Amino acid sequence: MRFAPPPSVRIAERSTGMNQVLARSYNERLIMSLLLQNPGLSRMQLGEASGLSAQTISVIVRSLEKDNLVLKGEAVRGRIGPPTTPISLNPEGAFSIGIHIGHRNLDVVMSDFVGNPISRRAFFYDEARLDDVRRTARAAVEAAMAEAPKARRARLAGIGLSLPSDMGPTIEEARAILDFDFEAELSRASGLDVFIQDDVTAAASAECMFGAARNLNDYLYCVVTPHIVPRLVLGGRIHAGHDQAFSGESEAAMMDRFLALRDAPEASGDNIDSWIGAVADELHALIASLGKFARVKTAIIAGLLPDAVLAEIVSRLSGISGADSETAIEKSRLGPWGLAIGAAALPFHSRFMNDSPVSAG
Length: 361
What we know:
Elements: H1 19-22, H2 26-37, H3 43-50, H4 54-66, E1 70-72, E2 87-89, E3 95-101, E4 105-112, E5 117-124, H5 130-147, H6 150-153, E6 156-163, H7 171-179, H8 182-190, E7 194-198, H9 199-210, E8 219-224, E9 227-234, E10 237-240, E11 244-245, H10 251-263, H11 272-291, E12 298-303, H12 307-321, E13 328-331, H13 338-352
Parallel strand pairs: 3-6, 6-7, 8-12, 12-13
Antiparallel strand pairs: 1-2, 3-4, 4-5, 8-9, 9-10, 9-11
Helix pairs in contact: 3-4, 5-8, 9-13, 11-12
């Protein structure tokens, strides 16, 4: 199984109408990365942030506009000088399908170019066994493509697939799933290229592209599932950590509760308050341990949870940490379908974005 992001410049092998749009130069990718992080920049601001000449910026913007990847806003008149025109990524310039394979569920979303989930759907199975996962993944892709209008299908940049590294009820099943060629399977079903990454790494990258880490190069990213799964991002590079398991319920029972809570937040039950407190305590301990080795100013908390529940976890954690804490606590902006959105971000990152951290500040 090949993991994404692949090398910076990758051109689709199939001859489709999207090929020319997907084959972007380094400078074009740099400009799109800047616009993703800072919507509404003018050509002058793009030049200052990128170091490219005004002529080069004009050529790039015209090229991206021709391919419907950027949009120009209304001219803004200042007190001095000519009007400036804000430029932003076109949400309908490209689309992708994101699939997250979980231990008991498979989520699929279709995302627009700026990370908004246009459609989403959940599939379920009793256990993550290869035959069930393979069949469900293929059905999910076919369903997502069948539901999309023809014009949207024509602008699909690819399929992103993410999954945890400890898949399957047994070691043998886990190895079978991780070794299976999902790229070939889903490419045959869709005619699209497939990009694969572990789920929390993909979500951490998507948070940098679309979410709370959009203008951060250093942050701690924690996903609350039946485990707390951390990723440390330093200088834009993602480093894996060790999962922190909760005591008490079995993992299967906890995952069932997570999925039920995501679909029906009002049915959380009486014990949700004590559980939120336990999660906040575990996160506080993890952040405190990290602080002994690295100074990170921001910790972003994500999870397969309703926004209200995640917001309460963040509030409790902020209260435990105190006002004098060196680490600010923020809630993920990807929502309860964030792991699938992380998968959907993989084709965008690989096709259109610059690998190096960029900033307009």
